Amino acid sequence: MSDSRDTVAENAFMEQQAAALLASVGDTLTRVPPALREPSERRLALLLLDGVLHEEEAATRAAVQAFHRERIAAAADDIERTSVAEGARIWKLYNHGFVIRTASVTFAFDLVRGTHVAGGAFAVDDAVMDRLAEACDAMFISHRHGDHADPVVAEAFLSRGKAVVTPPTVWEGETLHERVTHPQRGADTQHSLPIQGGAAELRVVAYPGFHDGHDGLPNNVTLVTTPEGMGFLHTGDQADPRAFTWIDTIAESHQVDVLMPNCWTTDIVRMIHGVRPAVVITGHENEMAHTIDHREPYWLTYERQLGSDRWGGSRHVGYDAPLVLMSWGESFHHSPGG
Question: In 3D, which of 205, 319, 211, 302 has the Cα closest to residue 265?
Fold first, then answer.
């Protein structure tokens, strides 16, 4: 049995190792940004990141916490200085959070600080989220779980007159509930969401998804169509297989440029066939509040794309839609038709 001196030494070593490996990961990801044709060097960096983040105590490591905070702050810097002339720039934040900017609008999905991880020590500063709220026109929240819905971030949007759109069960019974927008959930209803003081609008479909088939927790699968006609579909934690009654036919009614699914969703192959997106950008890899077995790694996202008998359903056949994998704070430019 190790004595306390051994434990201290081992812990110090793991801290040093995390810092060294994350420095290498960060350097590689900076030099080799997200692309449709992913260089092998970048893939190896993401797999190395999996290894660091799947150590049992990873969320408490100072190097991991700093890696998260620094990369989200860098994304805020990038968003503030980036203009888009054509297509869309998509930033991936923490977990399933995204910011999307076109020439005319900027909007977000599921932005959280990370206060639900490691007793709050993992979280980015409130001031960083204030900057993101200032840069965006609206935010969409898929469901009420703390890795998707953060009341402080919602308040940052609302206090600036920015719309926050959620299912009716998010912050139910709290004063915040009355200040957010709850669109009718339905596959056949498209809403108009005024933004920028009414100078522009987003077209929104709040598909009636659920977290899974057992807990009955409403989870909006939100399709946002911009004034340019580009469509962005964010699934939240959609996992209820009954949703395929409308997932199977989304492409028949709507154009989806970018699909942002939870990487562990039920039968991602069937979802992609129903949506027919131009690009897939997965989310929910390495949610640090999850146990290691459900802290979804990048290698598993790759494996699901290639196909494997172990996943059941139609997953064993894989899919050929372009996949772009991103880490916290990275961005990708999507050009329709290009």
Answer: 211
